[in-house]
Specification:
By secondary structure, this protein is mainly beta. About 5% of the residues lie in helices and about 45% in strands. The chain has a single domain (about 5-290), classed as Beta-galactosidase, Chain A, domain 5 (Distorted Sandwich), CATH 2.70.98. The protein has helices at about 95-100, 150, and strands spanning about 5-10, 15-20, 20-25, 45, 60, 65, 80-85, 90-95, 105-115, 120-130, 135, 140, 145, 155-160, 170-175, 175-180, 190-195, 205, 215-220, 225-230, 235-240, 245-250, 270-275, 280-290. The radius of gyration is 19 Å and the shape is globular.
């Protein structure tokens, strides 16, 4: 088995992972629809220092209003390369004059990608380099290439490793978490069916998941495409553009503001608070399977 990984300084982002020559990651701006428009320009961005959207795209920190775009700024900034081996790529983004204007905290964010056979592990590490507690959110947003015909025919589905009894599906209103839950779409307590209309109303966001592995499968070929181990992440989101040839399976440590948010950053639900000099780390692993 041969694998090839490509990453970029921009966003410290994984942009390609091939197994025996077959591309597993959505190829961003090179994938266009029938009208010549790009479905989604990204590949596998890191979401930091927020996941999802802020109410009015604003937040209060130390009594001052700051504006942050959806999913934060890290994915739009250039990272510094640290290590680049065949099976190990690592980058760092350090707080600077630009980030401090948007988010007044000192930090180092490391994106690391490690391969072992057909397994790809993404590791995020946050270091608090400041003198006060560092509040943040973080998550992954990998987009996996899928077959458009199989999508249109409803052949794809996601399956948890075991039956789930307590999953809550979050309902979005203009990108914010609503007070009521969305409809439970689990089939037989394990499966989520995917078709070209699954994301007409935005992402599927879940919390309360007991198991730590989910697989993407194809009914037509009766095979498993990939399995993700997202141990340690309290949220899992699934998203794509309508009818697009990719599927994002996103492990998150936090999520968007809710509709009743106070707007105070440190009061965000599931915000991580890191003491000075402390380190936070999370990772997820995706195993890809051959045809």
């Amino acid at each position: 088995m041969s694998t090839q990984m490509l990453t970029s300084k921009m966003g410290g982002e994984l942009i390609s992972f091939k197994v025996n020559g077959e591309e597993k990651i959505h190829q961003g701006e090179s994938i266009i629809d029938e009208n010549g428009k790009v479905y989604w320009k990204r590949h596998s961005p890191v979401l930091f220092p927020i996941v999802g959207k802020l109410k009015k795209n604003q937040t209060l920190i130390g009594g001052r209003t700051y504006e942050l775009p959806q999913h934060g700024f890290a994915r739009n900034l250039e990272f510094e390369p640290i290590t680049k081996l065949d099976n190990f790529h690592s980058y760092v983004l350090k707080s600077n004059e630009y980030t401090l204007l948007k988010y007044p905290y000192e930090f180092e964010l490391y994106n690391t990608y490690r391969t072992e056979g057909s397994k790809l592990t993404t590791i995020y590490k946050v270091v608090n380099t400041g003198l006060i507690n560092l509040p943040f959110g973080i998550g992954g947003h990998p987009a996996f290439a899928i077959n458009q015909d199989d999508l249109k025919k409803g052949n794809y589905y996601l399956e948890f490793e075991q039956e789930e009894e307590k999953i809550h599906f979050l309902y979005l209103v203009d990108g914010l978490i609503a007070t009521q839950y969305a409809k439970d779409i689990l089939v037989d307590k394990k499966r989520i069916l995917i078709d070209s209309h699954s994301f007409d109303n935005d992402a599927i966001i879940m919390k309360g998941i007991n198991c730590h592995k989910i697989s993407l499968k194809n009914k037509r070929t009766a095979r498993t495409i990939l399995t993700m181990d997202f141990t340690g992440f309290p949220y899992l989101a699934v998203w794509s553009k309508p009818n697009a040839p990719f599927l994002c399976i996103e492990p998150w440590c936090s999520t968007a503001d809710n509709v009743n948010s106070t707007g105070v950053f440190t009061q965000k639900q599931d915000i991580i608070s890191l003491k000075p000099k402390d380190v936070f780390e999370c990772k997820y692993t995706v195993e890809f399977f051959e045809k």
